[in-house]
Amino acid sequence: MHKTVPKGIASDRPLWIYFGLAFGITWGMGGLALLTGEIRSGGPSPRVPLYYIAAFGPSIAGVAMAARDDGTAGVRRMFARLVPSRTSIPWYLAAIFGFPALNLIATRLLSPESFARIPEWDRLLLLLPITLVKDTGPLGEEFGWRGFALPRMLARQRPLAAALLLGVIWWAWHLPTFFISTFSQHELSIPLFFINVLALSVIMTWLYRQARGDLLLTILVHLAANYCGWIGIPFNIEVSVEVVCAALILICGGLRTPPEPGA
After folding, report:
1. Is 259 part of a structural domain of the chain?
2. Which of 49, 119, 153, 220 could form a Cys-Cys staple with 123, CB 3.0–4.6 A?
3. How confident is the model at residue 42 (pLDDT cuts 50, 70, 90)?
4. Other C-beta atoms within 10 Å of 260: how many?
């Protein structure tokens, strides 16, 4: 008598098609932008059509795959997860205010000279919506990584494995930007960024499960993490805060629950 077990992600063809599309759109359009000179190493930060298509590659692929799998109903269900939930309000506040506050406290304690260069409070508030408008990461990526990929991964493997695997893929997707001086990642350590995305992926996976798949929350967490860079939090301090938060989640068993059987 054979025991029925959940199918692993290796058998999830739509998931791997999604990853191929996300990388193909981003790296393909980004490469074309480099060839045509729309993105130039050492040039100004690009704000051109090819750049935006490349930056939104994960979200474009996520919406396209939701439509492929379930038609307009699948797309509607994805966008319905953007509707604010009353039960998620504490998580929204933690993401928008709590995470930056932890980073500010850590900077004050660990790097007073960096803290002295952080903008005044009124400027800090103004920079939050500016980050959402100018930074393509939250909207350009989350409809894919946490909108399409993560739910499928959680249905087929343990939460920690899903978080770490998605973190590695997320890191790999960013790799070309480290070699183009136009982008902010060019100034960052690749190994430190790897630790950053793994820790952030653990945090976001835990919050995603706590808020029952709230896509708006993952966008806000991504926004808050990028916002910390915009206001001048040193990257090593931001990573340290993320690692501590991720470690506490794991120590408390936040990602121990086994996966539900996948289709």
Report:
1. no
2. 119
3. low
4. 9
Residue 2 pLDDT class (50, 70, 90 cuts):
very low
| Domain range for 137 | 9-251
Does a structural domain hold residue 1? no
The span from the CA of 213 to the CA of 64, in Å, is: 19
Task: Of 38-42, 64-68, 165-169, 180-184, give the lowest mean pLDDT range.
Answer: 38-42
Does pLDDT of 263 surpass 70?
no
pLDDT at 43 over 90: no
Q: Which residues contact 124 (CB under 8 A, 6 or more apart)?
A: 100, 118, 231
Inside any domain, residue 213: yes
In three state form, how does the secondary structure of the chain look?
CCCCCCCCHHHCHHHHHHHHHHHHHHHHHHHHHHHHCCCCCCCCCCCCHHHHHHHCHHHHHHHHHHHHHHHHHHHHHHHHCCCCCHHHHHHHHHHHHHHHHHHHHHHHHHCHHHHCCCCCHHHHHHHHHHHHHHCCHHHHHHHHHHHHHHHHHHCCCCHHHHHHHHHHHHHHHHHHHHHCCCCHHHHCCHHHHHHHHHHHHHHHHHHHHHCCCCHHHHHHHHHHHHHHHHCCCCHHHHHHHHHHHHHHHHHCCCCCCCCCCCC
Residue 255: count other Cβ atoms within 10 Å of its Cβ.
19
Mean pLDDT of the chain: 91
pLDDT at residue number 44: 61
Q: Residue 116 domain-assigned?
A: yes
Task: Name the pLDDT band for 4 (thresholds 50, 70, 90).
Answer: very low
Locate tokens 């993320």: which residue? 242
